[in-house]
Design goal:
259 residues, five-stranded parallel sheet
């Protein structure tokens, strides 16, 4: 059957920095090819023009942080055939999820002159805590090539072909000597999802986990190795509480070392 109408793509922002949306705009030539196959119906970062839904595919950036966010994500889910979360904020709560480990009311009273005007939830949570998500694309920011692959996959009814291995594999692919073995530099590469191209180890520094935990990460073993390299319990807590602090594997490991 010949398709007479282009699929509609919508991009939504919640609590975030817009970096992952900018990754889509940064696709340049790839974006032109994508735009030829779909109708970008709702993308405030790129255009004020909005085409009414429902939408074939929605890309969601950002965490659920306010009551308004919590209400709006259900509306987005209802008008979306497929919903894909993009970036650390949407998939793990983002850097703002650091507040989940403390009393958010105390933060508000310290930061804001008039706390009573601030309306927020007690925790900053990923999208999947609130609605069904068809696919999660990790990263801070996301890999633009992976994003194009995900869009193509969902528009053609197939599973996205994104790597499930760790950053260590990317180090081997680019011929980078392991910084933890050769230099004794603590590195999160063994437990972190691939996608960045192992940028940090290529410049002789340890990975800091911006793509979140890979499938079946052995965080306990890695923490033991870090301890052998001289990392303290506080170092381990801070290490696992970065962009993906509230991702389950990283959250549980950080809590094991918290005193």
């Amino acid at each position: 059957m010949i398709r007479t109408q282009k699929p509609k793509l919508a991009v939504w922002k919640f609590s975030s920095c817009d970096g992952c949306q900018l990754s889509l705009l940064d696709c340049e030539d790839e974006l032109l090819a994508v735009a030829g196959e779909i109708e970008i119906a709702n993308f405030p970062e790129a255009s004020r023009a909005v085409v009414k839904g429902p939408y074939d595919l929605s890309l969601v950036e950002g965490s659920i942080t306010t009551p308004h966010d919590e209400e709006r994500i259900h509306k987005v889910r209802r008008v979306s055939k497929y919903l894909v979360t993009i970036g650390a904020c949407a998939t793990a709560g983002g850097i703002q999820a650091l507040r989940n480990f403390k009393d958010v009311k105390q933060f508000i009273s310290i930061v804001y002159a008039t706390p009573k005007y601030i309306e927020t939830l007690n925790k900053s949570t990923p999208i999947t805590d609130h609605v069904f998500v068809d696919f999660e694309l990790r990263g801070c920011p996301i890999n633009k090539h992976q994003l194009v692959e995900v869009i193509s996959a969902f528009l053609h009814g197939r599973k996205p072909n994104t790597p499930a291995h760790s950053v260590c594999v990317e180090c081997k692919q680019r011929g980078t000597v392991c910084v933890m073995v050769a230099r004794g530099i603590p590195c999160l590469g063994p437990v972190t999802h691939a996608g960045c191209g192992a940028i940090c180890p290529a410049y002789a520094r340890g990975c800091y986990g911006c793509y979140g935990p890979k499938e079946t990460p052995n965080t306990v073993s890695l923490s033991a190795r870090w301890s052998q390299l001289g990392a303290s319990e506080q170092d381990l807590v801070r290490t696992f509480r970065g962009f993906n602090a509230y991702a389950e594997a990283f959250r549980k490991e950080s809590e094991l070392h918290e005193k």
